[in-house]
Amino acid sequence: MLGMSQPRPSASFSATLRVHLNDRPGAFADLARAIGDAGGNLGAIDLVRVESGKKVRDITVDAASADHIESIVAAVRLLTGVEVEHVSDRTFLLHLGGKIEMASKSPLKTRDDLSMAYTPGVARVCRAIADDPAKVWNLTIKQNTVAVVTDGTAVLGLGDIGAEAAMPVMEGKAMLFKEFAGVDAWPICLATKDVDEIVAAVTAIAPGFGGINLEDISAPRCFEIESRLKETLDIPVFHDDQHGTAVVVIAAFLNALRLVDKRPEDAKVVLTGVGAAGVATTDMLLAAGVREIIGCDRKGALHRGRDDLGPWKAAFAERTNPNGFAGSADEALDGADVFIGLSGPGAVTRGGIASMADGAIVFAMANPTPEVPPEEIEGLAAVVATGRSDYPNQINNVLAFPGIFRGALDVRASAINEEMKLAAAEAIAAVVKPDELSPEYVIPSVFNREVAPLVATAVAAAAESSGVARRRHAAQPV
After folding, report:
1. CB neighbours (10 Å) of residue 130?
2. Is residue 409 within 8 Å of residue 183, measured between CB atoms?
3. Which of 58, 92, 330, 382 has the fewest CB atoms nearer than 10 Å to its CB?
4. Phi-psi region of 448 (alpha: psi -120 to 50; beta: other; left: phi over 0)
5. What whole-number distance in Å separates Cα of residue 415 and Cα of residue 438?
6. Which position among 54, 55, 105, 118 bears the catalytic label?
């Protein structure tokens, strides 16, 4: 059995080294060899200038971690005839000054421009909305704007790092909304963990937005916050950690089952990680027809006989594990058809995967280190997917949330319901045509530009048919 795989170098840990090299034959070859021997991937090489007896170059290197960058730089500094002038972390450079900005749609170059965009002309528009509040959808940014709301308590794998530290992630989310669906999103990072205060704050800002995307709020508070906001607001409220994850998992699940010729109702599914994403994924699996789901936490399977379960885990146990299995996650995998990991590294072992049924499907989605490394289970599963971009079958929420909100906004939906989520999952799955389906392609690439429009169309249609759309999926005159 192989040991735990080491993280692969990637652009997320990349640096640009400005180096002065002696102008002699083989100098750069020595530099490149040192970088390779230190485990780095050599990227762009740019000549900055030529000095007397030296060449100054910018060398871009991909590493596997921040510490790995430092070790690569240290190896370069040991070379004779090489001086490292400075090292720039490319990820930090990208974040300087933030990653998003507000831009005007109309020029302000003349007095006429100003008088229409602002006072006195704007007063007539304000009065029109005051007389007919529904006009806010046509006459303001509300029709295309989403608030990305967090309290910073469950950010990525970092945990409770606070509202300020959550900002870079929320800015990134806003970038994805704009890039993939043309939706204007804005980070709203709240300096409170109190459920009542969060609900009150989001309710208070809701008039300025067409939808609310809850993000990185820890369980179980996220369940209550979403539930209360759905009851209060007449715009879509969507907790992406729950429902976005569930949608993309179901899309990959449906295609993987087609590939191994199995049906949802016949599949035994084992899931590790019964948090926000695990609960929502389970609910969608049940809606898709799966009958046997065993959810596991660190203490093993959730079942009705456990007396240590909080309210949401107890409710989970009531609607899953019909046979009352009471063992570990590895033991639950015996004869299972599908493993879905929404937990952390080491949640299951190679032995557990080896005990699964023929045509096993493994979604090991912990990031950056999967529950079980794909290298360790090579040949044991028919389909393997992760949350990472450097393995085949990346299951990533960006396939879901831009198109879901685009479709909801296009029909001015009052909610995002189960019908819309299932429509989104089926639309994502359908991007992979039957003749394209393979063990390494059960889910489309996050850069496939067909995905968001197809998801938006499917979601808008589902909103109309389920009665939550306030207009048809077509542009309406002001």
Report:
1. 10
2. yes
3. 92
4. beta
5. 35
6. 118
- CB count, 10 Å around CB of 110? 9
Q: Which of the residues 54, 173, 262, 268 is marked catalytic?
A: 173
Q: How many CA atoms lie within 13 Å of 287's alpha carbon, on the beta-carbon side?
A: 18
* Alpha-carbon span 7 to 388, nearest angstrom: 11
Question: Which stretches of the chain score pLDDT less than 50?
Answer: 1-5, 475-478
- Report the candidate in 468, 475, 477, 478 with the shortest Cα–Cα distance to residue 410: 475
Amino acid code (one letter) for 207: P
Strand order across the beta sheet in which 383-386 lies:
300-301, 292-297, 268-272, 338-341, 361-364, 383-386
User: 303-341, pLDDT tens digit by residue?
Assistant: 999 989 988 899 999 999 999 999 999 999 999 999 999
Question: How many Cα neighbours within 13 Å face the side chain of 344?
Answer: 7
Q: Is the dihedral of CA 126, 128, 131, 136 positive or negative?
A: negative
Q: How far apart are CA 385 and CA 361, in angstroms?
A: 8
Burial code of 278-301, b = ≥16 C-beta within 10 A, e = fewer?
bbbbbbbbebbebebbbbbbeebb
Report phi then psi at 294, rounded to 5. Answer: -115, 115
Q: Is 390 helix (H, G, I), strand (E, B) or coil?
A: coil
Tokens 């969060």 identify what position?
A: 198
Active site residue 313: no
Q: For strand 300-301 and strand 292-297, is the pairing parallel, antiparallel, or unpaired?
A: antiparallel
Q: Which of 137, 138, 161 is closest to 151 using CA atoms?
A: 161
* Cis preceding-peptide flag for 220 (omega within 30 of 0): yes
Record the tokens describing residue 68, joined without a space. Answer: 């790995």
Question: Is 99 annotated as catalytic?
Answer: no
Helix (H) or strand (E) holding 282: helix 276-287
Type of residue at 331 = E
Residue with tokens 């990637």: 10
Whole-number Å distance between alpha carbons of 34 and 74: 10
Only one residue has tokens 């429009």, namely: 453
| Tokens encoding 134 | 């529904």
Q: Which residue type occupies 72?
A: I
Sheet strands side by side (includes 10-22) = 41-51, 54-63, 10-22, 82-89
CB atoms within 10 A of CB 50: 10
152-199 confidence digits (pLDDT tens):
999 887 889 999 999 999 999 999 999 999 999 999 999 999 999 999
